Amino acid sequence: MGIKEKEYIIEVFSEGRDPEGERAASELSHVSGYEAEEISFSRIYSLRGQLEDEEKVLERISSELLCDSVTQDYSIGLRAVDAPSVRVYLKNGVLDVEGKTLMEALEIMGIEGVSRAAAARRYIMKGGRGDNLAGAAGEFLYNSVIEYAEIEEG
Predict the structure, then answer these.
(1) Which contiguous run of DSSP H or E holds residue 14?
(2) What is the pLDDT of residues 1-33, one digit of tens each?
(3) Which of 3.20.20.80, 3.30.200.20, 3.40.1110.10, 3.30.1280.10 would CATH assign to domain 6-152?
């Protein structure tokens, strides 16, 4: 019987000003009927595989490869939030260029044990008001032809 692969999640988010979150808040509030006092944007990286010394390896991947230490911070695993959030993923069959590039970078760094990498986006709606977050998200936060969203109530 083979070794069971695990899924590792790394979330990278802005410290201070969040231009992507500001853009999303502006687009949603102008047209959709859903408003949020603030929208926080983050990138989610999913790694599948079996890592030795996983805490050390995940810290290295996060700090040396995925996170700009001046403007960003990261969390191993998704941050717990007390607000609705929208996670946007590529549909099956759509090329994940960011995930492919991450796999190549891991190989260059000499990190072994990752069989698959994928990238996603997360929007956290702080102080959200309105009754149609799903509709608003589908219109302004992702392209339903190539992406799908999971909405968490928070």
Answers:
(1) strand 6-14
(2) 567 899 999 999 999 899 999 988 888 777 666
(3) 3.30.1280.10
